[in-house]
Amino acid sequence: MSGERQKLVIIVDESKKMFHFTSTHLVGVCNEAWYPYVEGKLFEYVERYLTSAKIANNVTLIEPLRACGINKDYQVTYNPRNESRLIINGVSKKGEISSIITFSKSLDEGYKQFWEGIENKDDFDLNQQLSTQFLDPLLKQIA
User: Fold this and answer.
1) For residue 40, what is the DSSP state?
2) Spatial CB neighbours of 31, under 8 Å, sequence gap ≥ 6
3) Domain positions in the chain
4) Contacts of 24 (CB under 8 A, 6+ apart)
5) Given strand 71-80, what is the order of strands in its sheet?
6) Other residues' Cβ atoms within 10 Å of the Cβ of residue 46
7) Are strands 6-13 and 18-21 parallel, antiparallel or unpaired?
8) 122-140 per-position pLDDT tens digit
């Protein structure tokens, strides 16, 4: 392990099957990045984003904090990677920041293209299609 476990908060919109990091570079440009997940697999998707972005070695716990309207806040506890401390402090010796920014931009752009390609959004089954058509191929490209 890389040291003491760290915590962050995510906001989850269960009606859209999307979540938002409230800290780290995964908040996106102008704090507007929302990430898709499949119902019943929030833990796996949060862990996948955090490990792919080299913020965490793994996620150990996701627990509810509070609800506000349709959104719910969850606290995520994770084991940090050594690189994450460098990135969070804005210091990079190996170019981690540029690769993380590229990762975040790829996710944002990939999701926009994915969603724009859906003709009938009202009838679209996000749970069934999201992982196989968007997230899995994107993560394979950047792995």
Assistant:
1) T
2) none
3) 6-135
4) 8, 53, 55, 84, 87, 88
5) 35-36, 18-21, 6-13, 71-80, 56-68
6) 24
7) antiparallel
8) 555 554 555 555 556 556 5
Residue with tokens 């390609």: 117
> What whole-number distance in Å separates Cα of residue 82 and Cα of residue 3?
8
pTM value is 0.58
- Beta carbons within 8 Å of 101's beta carbon, 6+ residues apart: 25
Q: What is the pLDDT of residues 74-126, one digit of tens each?
A: 999 999 987 533 343 444 444 555 555 566 666 666 556 555 665 655 555 55
| Average pLDDT of the segment spanning 11-38 | 90
Segment holding 136, helix H or strand E: helix 136-142
Amino acid identity of residue 108, one-letter, is D
How many angstroms from the chain centroid is the CA of residue 19? 7
Contacts of residue 142, defined as CB under 8 A and 6 or more positions apart, other chains included, come to 52, 102, 103, 106
56-68 vs 71-80, strand pairing mode: antiparallel
Cα 61 off chain centre by: 15
